[in-house]
Specification:
The structure is a single chain. This protein is mostly helical. 38% of the residues lie in helices and 5% in strands. It contains 5 helices and 4 strands. It has a two-stranded antiparallel sheet. A two-stranded antiparallel sheet has the order 3-4. Helix 3 packs parallel to helix 5. It is globular.
Amino acid sequence: HPNGGFRGFTGGDMGRERNDRNAQWDPANIAATYFALLNLTLLGDGLGRVNRQACLAWLKNLQLSDGTFGEALGMNGEVKEGQDMRFCYCAAVISWILGGDQGTEAQLDVDGLLRFFEASQTYEGGFANGPFHEAHGTPIVASAAG
């Protein structure tokens, strides 16, 4: 994607017709980026054609002040969605695959992300999708793996 990350499908690619008015229909998406990078890695691609710095900078722009991540960037760079354990998991894996822990300028706020994980742990020891929510399977896997 021109702004970093991967789009969910090529149908939104406006090519030369892309402008400020239709760009919102062609966003890079955190889940699509996660799956694209996993698939490329599983297929033995060395990720040499992936612009790592652009992807990591885009990922950093998806991180909210509370440490969580949104799904995509909207008009004027605002983060869409957010405070979702699944997006946090995707972000942690994307950062790891792309070497985001190597001291790049686009390094994420790991402490903020860990605070979100800790705040999402419930009284019975499980993990919820966010603070004050009910614990169940998906957030537990995402928080433990992230």
